[in-house]
Structure formats: C-alpha cells, structure tokens
Amino acid sequence: MPGLVPTPRLSIFRRRASLSRRSLAIVGSVALLAGGMLSTAQVASAEQEPSTGLGPNVIIFTPTMKQADIQAKLDSLASQQVSNDFGTARYAVLFEPGTYGSAATPLVFQVGYYTEVAGLGQSPNDVVINGEANVYNQCDSGGNCLALNNFWRSLSNLTINPMGLSGCRANTEFWAVSQAAPLRRVKITGQTTLMDYCSAPAYASGGFIADSSISTTVVSGSQQQFYTRDSSIGGWSNAVWNQVFSGTIGAPAQSFPNPPYTTLATTPVSRERPYLYSDSRGAMRVFVPAPRTSSSGTTWANGNTPGRSIALSDFFVATPSDSISTINSQLARGKNLLFTPGVYSVGKSIVVKRPDTIVMGLGFATLTAANGAIPLTVANVPGVDIAGLMIDAGPTNSPALLQIGTGRGHENENENDGHGQAASATNPTGIQDVFFRVGGPHAGKATTSLVVNSDHVILDDIWAWRADHGTGVGWTANTAKNGVVVNGNDVTATGLFVEHFQQYNVVWNGERGTTVFFQNELPYDAPNQAAWQHGSTLGWAAYKVADGVRTNELWGGGSYIYTNVDPTLHASHAFEVPVTPGVKLHDILTVSLNKAGTIDHVVNDTGAAVTPTVQGPAYVVNY
Fold first, then answer.
1. pTM reported for the whole predicted model
2. 96, 132, 411, 521: which is the annotated catalytic residue?
C-alpha cells in the first residue's frame, strides 16, 4: 500500500405513527419506484398501506427485496451524491434486520454526500451486509485523487463482512473520509482502510469512530488525525500527526510524539447517539443509550445497549414544509422531534424547554438560519439530546447557530417551562454528530456556531466549519468570530473539530472542562496581519482557556496554519491557557502547511515555531 505517510496536507478545495415491518416494505417499494427500479404493477401487487410520513428520501430495504433492485437503487443514489458536495438533496438509507448479499453476489456500494446508511436492528449484529459500503478518493481534473473533501456522510448500526470487487479494492471496506463522516455502532469483520490507497496522492484529513468493533488492523494510512472512542480494534497501522484513542480495546500504546499516539484507557464521560430501530413486533422506535463514565469497549459487546426506548408516536416527525410554529407547538405539547431528510429554513428559533427531549435528524437534515435567527435553542434543563443535524448560517448574521442553555444561574426561571431541573452528571445533555457551516453551500454569517451555557453537556463529534471553499467565502463574506464557546461547567468534548474562525476558534470559560481530541485549522484568508491580531498578539489562538479558569484538561490537540492570501502571517500561539496547576494540556502539536504561515509557539510561549521553511510538527507533550 504505497504512500501511507503523506507529505503535509494540501490546501482543501476542498408521520406521525409507528411503523410496522409490513409498512416498511411498502416504504422501500415506493422509494424504489421513485428511483425507477420497480414498476407500478409491482408496487400494486404489494400489501397496500398508507404512507408512514418519513418522506421519499428515506429509503428502507428489507431482506425479501430482490438484491438486484437494492443494488440498482444504491448505485443510482451514489451516482447522484458522490460528487454533490454542496447540493440540497438529503437521504437516509435504512436496512431492516436480516442479511444482504452473499459470497456469490456481494452487495457493494458507495456512500456519497448527505447520505446516512444505518441498520434498523436493536444491535449491529441484526443487520448483516456481505459486501461493502465504501467511500473512495475523488479525483480532480488534474488527476489528483484525494479524500480531503469527503465530508457529510455516515455509516452506523450494522455488520459488514468485507467481500467483493477485485484487484486493489478486493475484499476491503474503504472509508476514506475527512470531517463529519462518522462510523458508529459498526461491526466490520475484515480488512478496513481509512484511506483509498488505490489512487494517489490519497490524502485524508481526519475522522471519528465510536462504539464500533473492527476485527483486523485498521489501515490509517494518510489520515492526518483521527479519533477512536469506546471501540474494539485488531490494531492500528500507523500515525501521521495526531491519532487519539480513548476506551478502545486493541489501541496502540501511548507513545506521543513518536509515533503520535495519544491513548487513554477509558473515556471520562460518554453518551452514544440515539438511533432508530425496528422492535421485535415490527414497530419503529428510537433507542436512547444511557450515559457512561470511565467507559471502554462497545455498549453492545455483552448484549443490548443499556438505555431507554421511545415509541416513534412520541415524536413529531417534521418535514421541510412544516412551519417553525408547528414544530414549536409540538415540542410544547411534550413531543420529541425527528427531522426527516431535507433542508429547513428557520426564521425563528426552534425552542426545546422540556427535560429529556430528543431532537434528531435523519439523512443529514439541515437547519438553515434565516433573518438572523438562532436555529435551535435549549433551555437549562437536563437530559436533552441533539443528534444527527447540520446547521447552516444564513446571509443575515446570527448570534449563534445552536445555543444550549440560557446562561448561568437560570435553572429555575420561567424559560425552563416550570420544570426547574438543574443539569447533573447522571443525566447530561448530549450533542452528537452535529455539524455547523458558515458559508460553503451559500452565503452565511454567524458570530458563533455553538454556545454551551448549560452544565454537564457532552459534545461528541462536532465539526464547526467556517468554509474555506464553496459559495460566499471570503474574509468579509462569511464572517464568523468563534466556532465553539463553552460557558457551562463540567462540559466534556469527545471529538472536537473547529476550523477557520476569525478570532478564537474555541473559547472555554467554564470550569472542569475536558477535551479528548481537538483538530483545528486557523483561517486561511486573513488579508494582512493588521486584520488578524489583537493588541500585540499576532493572530488568535485556536484553543483559548479563559484567564480565570482554574481547571481544564485536554488530550490530543493539533492546530495547523495555512495562510494562502498572505503567507507571511504569524499566530503568536495555537493554544492559550492560564498558567495554573489545574489547567493541563497533553500531547499537542502545530504544523505549517504548504509553506504559508507561521505559528510562533505551540502553547503560550512554549514550543518551537513552525514556519514555511520549518513546517513541523512542533510538539509539546505536557503543559
């Protein structure tokens, strides 16, 4: 597998009813009809039941369907979505419990942009694909084949027995991705690679695995950074800059910086993402995993995942045609909220006030701010879970895109709808696989992407992205001050990706904060040093712990600079923290990319410079 260790990174060009198994078969048939795969007569011969309300972009397959029809639909979807990086189409591809494909005829398909592929079993063992669900490099007109822009797709809650294809790609699960492309609750029984070594140069920019089991040694290859949490693996091939493991059985031993592995035996606090499943009677439900502390290994290794099950009838199943007033009315009535695939214009805030409310998206459902609104806000109540959403800025500046909590000291005020419950360690709020964009698909402005005011919040696989390519991109076009601001206490981030914001990318004001894995690129496009400095400090740090904070800890953090508009720009330091015994940073690094930009120090005034001629990495093991 040539080219496993890359040269430094190139710039990125970069409804409302429970469902039965019987009705699921109809949904799958209708979806296939929409794709031109089944005739009207074939649909008419199936059992006739009313629409279930999940919409035409939720495609559900059952084991009784003809494999040729399933393959044709998946191939058609891939041909549409593999290159559709800023399109508006969104899809959820769901597999009912059973086995798909065989050694003789494997089911092999590609997963494109805005496509969620998931099993509908209670356990990943309930859906088995003999074949592969692959993500490959994308090749540009110059013949460069890269995975640097393979964002916004996911695979979860199923088993893959890799088989099929031939030559370089034979019998291997390829998941060559970068940010916002998680693997969750996946069991893979054969060769797995996180880079596409079958075409060059094959660079990849980092990803996320959680609650998964991979039997063989994972080929990390060109992955510049990667985070694996609460999983089981057969081994790990290599490291480039920043590979982090927590609670992962079979992970390489701690060895940062040579090689740069950061390995924690357990994850301090974790909460897995809620997921849709079909119960033993064929009814569709949502399972909400219980939070864990000091966790290791998968939640399902010894039986079903601990947690609670909620009937789909307890959800308001939203579509893009529903008004925000309707959505808020349903939330006020005590409903949970499920967004079906699509793009939702949000001109006033969707407001969550009830403790333990579940808000989840299917198929990368996207909330787009309109009129400067904050698309989604949560009161100071415990146990809320927000999962599987994209949130985009609109052309009028929003103060934030997601706000958790209304601020310190408000736990018993009226905005909590009279519940008066404070957050707690035993019932934390979870934010999983929530991805923010300021610019990219269209013009966008937002002061901050994510503001966390509540205590006891878990941020699990977050990518806040001020766009460096796409539409509406430029220093005065997609303006965004900060990516993530944490004001609450006892907030834990497991997998925090924050890139290109114009001032501090992350600001941590709360006490007892914990981050396991942080990945950052500083902004590319500052026009000159005067536009990107404050006082005598050049640039802005990627990760800022406020001066008065007494306790904060970070494991495994990387910040990179690439100032392509003005390659002479400096950042004084990538990490800026108070010098106090309770604030600790472990295994942090900086890199200068493509001979453009300098970071003078890694943290405060400690750590060597990285420059266009000495590109690094520069490491600090403990601070």
1. 0.92
2. 521
